[in-house]
């Protein structure tokens, strides 16, 4: 497979659109979604999932007809799951029609359902972690220029937005913004290089995926993670050989799924699949850094940027 070309920095992306009520599920955000015109229901936003998902309760309540089963690649395993037929799924200004979506338990999803990139591909999505607000806009609309924010331009691969201007512990890698994961997870190729170059110590934790399967992950604190011109220091990253790396074609070289534990250290994040851009706006933060709630209280990630010492958002 040919390597991806380097990403470039573009500071001209802005977001307009409809405000959607959002609430926080630990570090993840949910939005109001209508299913066949009914609802709204609170769906977790998962930019790392290639398909949206319906909860069992919504499927029963709306008497959604069964479709053919499908193999679901999720964070912890692969499973054959039932699908249901959905006539219309509405998020903000966009409606997607004629879908066959996996049906899973709400306690495993973390909401009434989950919005994946099949519903996000037409959207320009902004997540405000300070206000717990999500803005959504049709990606076909023109974008207004708004200077002062850091934007990374990536590449699309198998429907997913891949960022290439990323380094962890001095190691270049490809990264996916994964708003459905509460922890950031690297593949084994990244783990091996991190341990060798940074002499990082590995610890173990257990995590549970959307199908209810629990697996053990190894964790290391990486001294530095660079996203374009922004640097995060003392960053906890978990490592495992997970199905999404293979699905997105990221299993042969160092790669990272950036979860909401790191995303919430920023004030706002926006995703534009049509323009292949991810925008980061820095949070107002103290010199001591930003605590990451998913990890032990001793873990603190600090921000800096090549633009100077001041890293406060507006």
Structure explained in plain terms:
This protein is mainly β and 314 residues long. The chain is 11% helix and 48% strand. The protein is built from six helices and 25 strands. A hairpin with a 2-residue loop joins strand 2 and strand 3.
Rg over CA atoms, rounded to whole Å, is 19 Å
Going across the major beta sheet, what is the strand order?
A: 3-4-10-5-9-8
Structural class label: mainly beta
- Please tally the helical runs, counting DSSP H or I stretches of 4 or more residues: 6
Largest sheet: 6 strands, mixed, barrel
Low-confidence parts = 1-25, 285-299, 305-314
Distance between the termini: 41 Å
Number of strands: 25
pLDDT average, as an integer?
A: 75
Task: Report the β-strand fraction as a percent range.
Answer: over 45%
Helical content class = 10-25%
Outline: globular
Which helices and strands occur, and which strands form pairs?
Layout lengths: L7 E2 L8 E8 L2 E8 L2 E8 L7 E3 H6 L8 E4 L4 E4 L1 E9 L2 E11 L1 H4 L3 E3 L1 H4 L2 E6 L4 E6 L11 E4 L1 E3 L2 E9 L2 E7 L7 E2 L1 H11 L4 E6 L5 E14 L2 E10 L3 H5 L7 E4 L1 H4 L2 E7 L4 E6 L7 E2 L8 E6 L9
Question: Brief description of this entry?
Answer:
The protein is mostly beta strands and 314 residues long. 11% of the residues lie in helices and 48% in strands.
